Amino acid sequence: MGCNGIQRCGFCSKSLRCSDIQKCEKFLDHIQEVSKRDCWPDDPKFMIYDYCGGNIDDAYEGGKETGEILFARYLLALIGEQNAG
Fold it and tell me: What is the pLDDT along the chain (85 residues), one digit of tens a residue?
């Protein structure tokens, strides 16, 4: 499928430049992949100390990773994507 410079967006039905659509598709693919990762709060018996063992660096990295995953899930839910979380 070639691009003549302008395409209709499959999500919002607006006419957009092909490069913008490609960027949106790449972004959507990325957040879908991130949202599929497991994160600490997915465990119903989640206790931060069990995961980090008192190590502040581990707690920080785990929180950072969890934030990325939960934000990706939030974005997918916001735009109505099926695989949100």
Answer: 456 677 666 666 667 777 777 888 888 999 999 999 999 999 998 888 887 888 888 889 999 999 999 999 999 999 887 654 5
35 and 69 in contact (C-beta within 8 Å)? yes
The Cα–Cα gap between 46 and 14 comes to 43
CA distance 79 to 12: 10
Nearest by Cα to 10 from 78, 79, 85, 77: 79
What global pTM score does this model have? 0.73
